[in-house]
## 1
Amino acid sequence: MKTTLSSKARRNFLVGISQTSALAVTGGLLWSFIIKREARAMPFALRPPGALAEADFSALCIKCGQCVLDCPYDTLYLANSADSIPIGTPYFIPREIPCYMCDDIPCMNACPTGALSPTLEKIEDARMGLAVIDIENCLSWQGLRCEICHRECPLKDKAISVEHHQRKLSKHAMFVPLVHSEACTGCGICEKACPTDEAAIKVVQADLVQGAIGQHYRLGWKQEGQISQEFKTVPIPEQPVEATGLDYLNEGDL
Amino acid sequence: MPATEQRLGPNGKPVRSLELAPGLWPWLVNYRHLLLRRCSQLGVLLLFFGSAHWSWALLEQPLLSGNLSSSSILGLIPLADPFAVLQIFVTQHVLEQEVVLGAALVLTFYWIVGGRAWCSWVCPVNLVEDLASNLRNRLKINNAFHLPRQTKFIVLIVALLLSALTGVAAFEWISPIGVMHREILFGIGLGWLSIIGIFVFDLLVLRHGWCGRLCPLGAFYSLVGKYSLLKMHFDGPTCTHCGDCIKVCPEPQVLNLNQATTIGYIKSGDCTHCGRCISVCPEDTLAFNWRSLNKQSQQINHPLDDNYRRKSS
């Protein structure tokens, strides 16, 4: 009798444990699904200066909104549950209010966790995004004189330069703006200033538009001094051993 | 009714209910904990809101900048939600000192005043919960199913495991507390839907379903509260076992009166220090007091006193 009781108790205990863990695992799976969907809700969000790479930023941001409150221009929003931006995280919409690149970077200094990394010393080194020009709708690229983005750019001539295209037959001479990724901070002042109905210059996260050439291309005219004219032996990958018999036609016997 | 009035408690005194003296002042004094709690809950919200939107400042520094996840007082003293910081910590990301210090300060504060004092004195969801609970009492709705109070500890463990596995602070991404608080401060989105969800769940499905059984933050503070310095003290000999405290308590399992008589205070960390029991106790048996640290050795673990609970309900 005693053994049946204890085995019943043991059974109840084991069933209880299994039910609890089954619930925990199912709930956990559902929960992680929501998190994963939410955390990658929109890779297009423009983060405040100093923000770490998106995965690290998502982990470290405690969603306190102190960066939002400390921005003197009210540039930043804290994503709410109706936005398509990961919930509770700060972002900005340049066409509404761009980042005016304060020298003391108050938003970054307000961040208690380091999601906006204090390693950013100069605002010019911030990489919030990259400006991209739609040359089909850019006034300057149509031959009109505009270049507003160039004049408004806080890193004028470094981040946005103007190139003179000479007049050709039946065409205007053109002064076309060009963005340079090595200097563009992604502040979005150009996007705010663009006079077209829909901005013809937009800030997006750099990795959405930027390619990568690859290490093996040598641009000799750009790398003067770095590349010598000396012939360097390149290690040749080992050839696969050919099957015997393939070469018999060349052998002396025939 | 006269029969119940003649019932005697274990101390030989007749069992009676609290009868308040007429007038506003006795009422105010009696329900001071409830009133102070509402002031505290709304006051914290107001401090955050005023600092954010009406530029409330002292010495040109915002009074309380941020939200309940992390904030700073006068730009000097950092505060942070220790559970959120713990979740970020298990994602193996290196945190700045500021937020760690803030979490330590908040943790120390709740270690002193009682962990789940957070729940009933600060958390905005408590307002929703209390409203649902109140309505539920009036409408006399039964629980749809049983869910043990310990469930919240499993949610706590799952939250930490998921944080480690997914690399983001798991609870912070779905927390209805965070959503409610943020959207009051930073603009309304769809967060009110999750608050309505909690309200309906607590009203129709399960009494204290969210706060008492599911919320991992409550579970976290429950662990803190177990060791806290401020405790609900219980003067055993004066108690007539009328059971009024158990009727109003949102966590009635903590009122284990045998254990409380032995050790002199309510031991469980689930006690939210809301003070409702103080307001209804006719014998002044219950009161907030500091735990004397040398009493720790006298603590005895009794099982839940089911015998008593049955008699009272």
Note: The longest helix of chain B spans residues 32-53.
## 2
Amino acid sequence: MAHPPLTLARATELLRTRQASSVELTKQCLARVHAAEPNLGAFLSITEEHALKQARAADERIARGDNVGPLTGVPYAVKDCLNTVGLRTTCASKILRDYVSPYDATVIRKLNAAGAVMVGKLNMDEFGMGSSCENSGYFPCKNPWDHGRVPGGSSGGSGAAVAADLVPYTLGEDTGGSIRMPAAFCGVVGLKSTYGRVSRNGLLALSSSFDSIGPMAWTVEDVAQVTRVIAGRDPLDSTSLDAPVPDYAAQFTGADLKGVRLGMPKEYFTEGMQPGVAKALLAAIDNLKGLGATVQDVSLPHTKYAMPVYYTVQFAEASANLARYDGVRFRTAAEADDLLNLYLRTRADGFGPEVKRRILLGTYVLSVGHYDAYYLKAQQVRELMRQDFDKAFESCDALITPVAPTTAFKFGEKSADPLAMYLSDIYVTAVNPSGVPGLSVPCGFADGLPVGMQLIGPRLGEPTLFRIGHAYQQSTDWHLRRPNSETTA
Amino acid sequence: MTATDFEPVIGLEIHAELQTRSKMFCGCPVLDPLVSEPNVAVCPVCVGLPGALPVANRRAVELGISVGLALNCQIRDFLAFARKNYFYPDLPKGYQISQHEYPIAFNGHIDVPGPTGRVRIRRAHLEEDTAKLVHASDGTTLVDFNRSSVPLFEIVTEPDIHSAEGAMAYASAVRDVLRYLGANSGDMEKGVLRLEANVSVRERGTTDLNTRTEIKNLNSFSSLGRGIELEVQRQIALILSGGKVRQATMGWEQAENDRDRVKLVEQRIKENADDYRYFPEPDLRPVPVSREWVARLRLELPELPTARADRFRTAFGLSAADAELLTADRALGDYFEAVVRGVSTPKVAANWMLGEFMRLLNEGGGELSSVKVTADALAELIREVEQGNVTPSSAKSVLADMFASGERAPAVIARRGLTTLRGADALTPVAEKIVTDNPAQVAQYFAGKENVFQWLVGQIMKATKGQADAQQTRTTLQAVLEARRPK
């Protein structure tokens, strides 16, 4: 490793002790971004000027000692589904190629207020529709551990940018695994927050009842720090939760997990898992036991319905959420002699194939004659899934499961078969319909590629997930291993 | 069968803007469409920008509940919205946030004055208005988002109305309720109240619900009445000639041979029901509507126009027609009640209000709030008349003066010297002069032509500019004439 990893904690420390200025750190990150791009494909836009301006302001703030927090002056990058004033927000879709939002997402406003420095907008599957980042409307993002493999999706850029040590942390968005999957494939920590914990205002919606914003970073501690800043009730988001945001780090207990009850849902430990993944996971469970946690078997009997429920509702909500991209306001088809053709051409031209597929399926499941059999049924089963979790959390504090059945797969391996691609989300999709939080933590390697474990907590159970994840990272070093330049050539 | 064997079956939908300060799902102001520049009340939410989220307007929900209560509806114990999906340039999100399965109010009714009687309300729900399309002369279409997401309350009846007049009476009664609650100004010309009629016909004596057509864009009560009449005639003629009514949306069209005449034509044939792919709005999760909240809103309901009209009839002895006129507008009713408190006979106050007062009010633009005459001042004027201090005919001109100057009645009467002439002292000289000046008429009177007496009274009135007390004028004239009667 050419340099010690620039975690958030280290960046904060460098700034606090005046070993580096925000401008220096920002230039350093920008230099790494420029060195990695465009080869890596993590960044859709590099906001250099904006970043340096924020960095200079942060340095002044630090010099004044004016409300300096852990994020003040530290560079980060954000998935391109979050609105940023004056900078392009594309959701990796051609339909928003030149879209500039007149307002900031609430999380961006909070990060701005905290003095954070945004260096760019990150690649993703178009509108979050994908598990590999291959569905970006612009270019795919590669996995820093192996450029022949996908970084996971849809927040592929957010995972790759941290894994490649380009920025200390990123923001992602998780609708059905979109943070946890790339976190596992890239060997970083990623939080899918409790639904409503983080405001969705200014987040370009994929599936409104699933979408959850969360940070990705090297350590659980860093993820907890960022979560603390971006979480909280927002009057602009009626679904945001009115619950106080705790100081997560204050609840850490070092490497001690005495009294913590972990559940292993039997439906998640079945055939089909890559052996190296299963092995890493079981070793991680042993490690957690060694830290004092108890582990018991639990059952989430409706797990087998998670995929159909998730995709049915997601397609339905997405079909409505994407209706606004009609060419009237954001991007007009060059030639259209009537309204219908304006709609048809704009959307035919602007959306990629996966987006079109999901809009069609979503329109179908909401149609008269199909609504009851699909959408309504899915919502009913969704309630049962929620009850499964509620019941499991009566006897345990958190669940431990794999994140993905395999390590990062190769480009093209699944992109020809949508169903195979959907199945890579098998362990992560149940979390979103139930609104509970999920934390992906690196827990080893299989054939040289990172493996992640998923910790699932009850609604607003982030403190427990962070405590467990932090304790685990106190006794392991998987999260500090980075891809080296030889393997990434 | 002939045309008279048929009976119309009509259901109405009223779309009323709820005139809150801000829009249904964002903080943008609700503007007067007649005076505002386009696209000045817009934000990411009501323009449907990516990432913007709706937040329900509590005041709009309260108004919806209040209107529902006033229409005797049940109020649902939770508030839930749904997305109604369709593409149109006036609908920026590609869906309208509305209520579908769970309207906030349902199963109500209103008792319409007159022959229409009780009309059942099937449901009333909250939704957001669309933007407004402006078609420019060069063929382009512009979108004005000021109206986008303004709160709307859609009130849907059962098919309980059986005439155009009934539909108009119902619509007018609902408008009065909306205005009483301060929910809607009722200004049809501003488009804040829009009507749609569902019309079918059936053989009298049957209870069939036959294929209906829908008449949209009815922007006045008269177009509502006219539209229903035309559509009923069209359907009857169609059936009598062996045709069948098709489910369709009807639109207005100018007759080819007469530019002043309009007719209804089938605008859009509906083969099957529209598929709006309704589903629960995930951005606004259902919230409970507490019984306490509803109970408080019920307590705050003002006395409604029909109840008030009943009270005016029984307590004040007014005719049904007068009572209805005086209660259609809440402020006018309040004004009337204040006048009544200052006079001895409510009926007299009603006559003043509906006569001279209304005439002057309408002449001045019809805005009660800009009238300078307070209810107390009008009552004072009526008392002056009742006490004989000013004659009724003078009082009319006194009121006109009060409207213009804002002065109180005694001041106007004194300034203009309009105090009634009473008593022999004041009237005898006038009578003497009239009798002296008109010897020929006096001679006729003495010759037995009695109606000349009335002419002479008129001359006295004229000479006193109507200020003479009528009864005393007669007595005095009688005395003067008798003194001169030839022996």
Note: Residues 485-489 of chain A have pLDDT under 50 and may be disordered.
## 3
Amino acid sequence: MFGQYSAFIIPSYLVSAAVIAGLVIWTLLDHRARLREIRELEQRGIRRRAAAREKTDV
Amino acid sequence: MRALFVRELRLASRVGGGALTGLLFYLAVVTVIPFGVGPDLKLLARIGPAVLWIGALLAGLLGLERLFQQDREDGSLALLLTGHHPLALVVMVKCLAHWVATGLPLIVAAPVFGLFMNMSAEGIGAVVLTLLAGTPAITFIGAVGAAVTVTLARGGLLIAILILPLIIPVLIFGVTAAYGAVEDPAPFLPPFLILCAITLFFAALGPLAAAFAIGQSAE
Amino acid sequence: MNDLTAKRASLWDLANPTRFLAIANPVIPWLAAITIVALLVALWMCFSAPEDYQQGATVLIMFIHVPAAWLAMMCYSIMSASALGTLVWRHPLADVSLRAAAPIGAAFTFLALVTGSLWGKPMWGTWWVWDARLTSVLVLFIIYMGLIALSKAIEEPAIAARSLAIVTLVGFVNIPIIKFSVDWWNTLHQPASVSRLGRPAMDTAFLYPLLMMALAYTLLFVTLHLMNMRNEILRRRVRSMRMMAARENEAA
């Protein structure tokens, strides 16, 4: 598709896409895992100090 | 301050022979090289300065871990923190003592290793001179790594990873100056002076940053 | 910790990261959408650009190589600014920003190296030359990895934050020296010929796609950085909640 250089152009785009996609997926998975942890902890009745203050102060 | 210097020296020469370990490591590195590249004396003479420098660099990195670890374990670090001398000065003195205890032996041994590498007398002299000017920089900048990892049980490898990229300029100018003394068209003085400048710069930057790191982590 | 500092710390916790989340949460989807559009436009522009008379189609690699290299450097600047924020103002978000940026910076540096290598093979005939620019970027990559290793190694968050900040700043001070020494070293050893081929003055036909791609990459960086900062804040929340739980268990 890109003449004689396709063997270099296609891999460079593939690698870039893979690394960026990996970064995005890792970030999203990380986000999900943290949210799940927080939900679990909250279900066990644990609250952050700051959140507890918000409740009691108001 | 002189008392501190003497104390540091005594400690360094006592504790399990840190200087000796570094020296043996240096010997091992230099010995391994010919097995890797072959016993061609001409080639060895050509790469000699570089090998001596890299060996000294690695051996210097090896001992850095001990710079503050010991003091932290026996609590004298806290004592130095509360003392009335500025912490950066204390770190500076510790670095100098550490260099005298572990760096100088390497430099003294370098001529012998230079013979192994079939180097000329001039070349050996140049390497010794550049090592003398350059290796303090490793200790000074290494102090930052040692200070930052002082809370870790096994920080040695991490120090090496953090410090090696920062040390590249020292290696470049050290080896370039050493070659400059032997090979004709290459200059000796400019790289040597830059090497001295880098060492002085690290002597200012390293202890300050290391003292800051220690002060912060002690809070 | 006495009562006063505890109170202050909790106020900081409340004020900054929470406010940050309140702003970041609605912004992130929009930023992500804009980034995707920008990336698509940039890609379209790149592939519709004419072939360079000298580099041929490999100019296509330049379009993704240059922005990656550019971001590799920008990311380190942002990390250094964050390090200053940690050390001078003790701002809790500064450390979050530093930590969140490190893996992204490492990834872009890696991309710059790989795509540069893939460009170098057809243009220079070799995967790697010890060219001043390449070598400096490689050193930058090692520094990034060292910082990531350090951030993983130290458990105590406050000490980790300051240690990271100090090493980042020392690295920042050193980068010009490294660059200079590599340049010097390179002019001594360079067999010449390679560097000159490097980058001819660019025609606008290539400049616009390149700038567009740089913009898209920058947007991508900002989005990822914000998302990573959000994760880091949540990670800290989990940590402090776990500690609360442990304390309550002890009390009970």
Note: Helices of chain C lie at 3-47, 59-89, 92-124, 132-153, 157-189, 194-197, 204-251.
## 4
Amino acid sequence: MLRFLARRSLGAIVIILLISAITFLLFFALPSEPALMSCGKNCTPDAIAVINKNLGLDQPVPVQYWHYMTGIFVGRDFTVGHCPAPCFGYSFSNQQPVWGTIVDRFPTTLSITLGGAAVFLFVGVGIGMIAAAFRGTWIDKFFSSLSLVGNALQIYFVGVIALAVLVSGLHWMDNPAYYPITQNPGKWFMGMLIPWLVLSIIFIANYSRMTRSQMIEQLGEDHVRTARAKGLSRRAVFFRYAWRGALAPIVTIFGIDLGSLFGGAIITEFTFSLHGLGRLAVSSVSETDLPTLMAVMLVGCTAIVVANIVVDAAYAVIDPRVRLA
Amino acid sequence: MTTSEGAFLSVRDLFVRFDTEDGVVKAVDGLGFELERGRTLGIVGESGSGKSVTNLAVLGLHDPRHTEIRGEILLDGQELTGAPESVLEKLRGNKMAMIFQDSLTALSPYYTVGRQIAEPYRKHTGATRREARQRAVEMLDKVGIPNAALRVDDYPHQFSGGMRQRAMIAMALVCDPELLIADEPTTALDVTVQAQILDLLKELQQQTGSAIILITHDLGVVAHTVDELLVMYAGRAVERGTVREVLSEPRHPYTWGLLGSMPLLDSDVEEPLVPIPGTPPSLLNPPPGCPFHPRCAHVAEVGGDRCRTERPELPPGRGAACHLPAARQRTAFPQQTKPRPA
């Protein structure tokens, strides 16, 4: 296990460095002049040169990259003063320390993704198991058709409908908003409920279909028949043997889906005007705000890579045949 | 084999039919046999002859939604066909147990061998976790797993094929079943390991006095292991007798074919093996009359249309379901199916 973690962490660092370097390079391929943002209307070339010097933009790109990355660990000195570690620089667009913005936005995105994942895993896998248990009956057919419909839906479409019906129409709920869980868990839950449900709809459809087919496959396995031949009840066999076997592939797919989950979170944030990392990522690109863009990329990337390591470790716990090395 | 009213296991007029998209498959078509405690019955036949289906029916493991089972299965006087699931669950793994063919797929990869052995013991005896584990170690030791106390916590993939099969036997025997069904228990194993497993089964039977049904398509396996033999073809019993009777004086042309297609150590190497011509019939639409007649070389001998129209009955006790005259059945085998070089 320790060797596995060490090896995967090393790999993760390489991946994160590569992605950050590519992001940095791509930024300089954009036809933009960040200094213009800080300069105002009557900008002279001299003023731009001064700003570029202050921002460090007059230096070669690799040097800038080096300064940016080392700043994260040891802090960085700007003309305006010292920026303590972890320093992701100052935003080009609002001149605030980027790290503060990230700390401010991260909980929203984390709430949306973790909550959405919990909802779709619980509901999707649950529906799949029910459909498998009642295979061939109207219950199965009902859920199968439902998942086809769910699969065809899109977040922005369902989101708007949910707002129109639940919030504006029936007044059952308030507009989704983020309240820190530490202050008011109930409010946090109610504020996140619609985003969770909307984000999870497509995943629920996928996961219920996958769980159903995995369960049906497992129920036909020899070892399930052996368990029945031992005198175990249908229920015990269903949960202890078949579900256990279906779990491993579900976890694998979940690991693969983490990226698209983050993508879905971005769309969800836009749909419900929530201020999370996804929104920040998009605005930092359109505002050519390099420090913010880099920070969002690094945080998002790290989150996905770490989650993947956790999923792989979980896989080894689920299936004893998998050896971590 | 004697036909008595009070046999330990008595199967009478068993019909098993599966509903499939292509139609109704008559997997078992009027089968009957009996088995006493302490005896071993071998059931041989080609793939698809209904051997496994019959025994899954005894355990009640067919999916009732797609399966129709008619007839009588009496275990120690208790009717099993149509018995409620709750009754069968108490018998399975307890009074009757099954050993499956492929121990790699038949054991769950997710639980330790010990847990899988202990599970039915806990369920049927109400033993504690600790007692059941102790019992699992004891059983593994009994079936010849070295270091049983350590290996009990291994997963099936950490066992070799022969050890897995031993573990499966331990699992089946953990509650001292009175009926043990072994479905091709040695097919997936090396020949040397095969012999060990068969010896183990015999040895354990002598200790417990259980009745064993050994399903196989390998006549070499039955010769040294079973007492009585039932030859199945197309879901029916075509010949029955003690193993000595059937192997030394086979009476059914299908049994002749089975024996003729088997290599013998003492026969001439140049001597060709004679396969049975044709393929087993479709059980969706079995041929009328004797199911073996499309592949049988003796139809003309019987004369008329009897083989094609009239279903031969298997007489009680020793005998074959064949229209050939009894005298001919006894003498026809070596000359007809094993052409000797001049």
Note: Residues 98-318 of chain A form a domain with the MetI-like fold fold (CATH 1.10.3720.10).
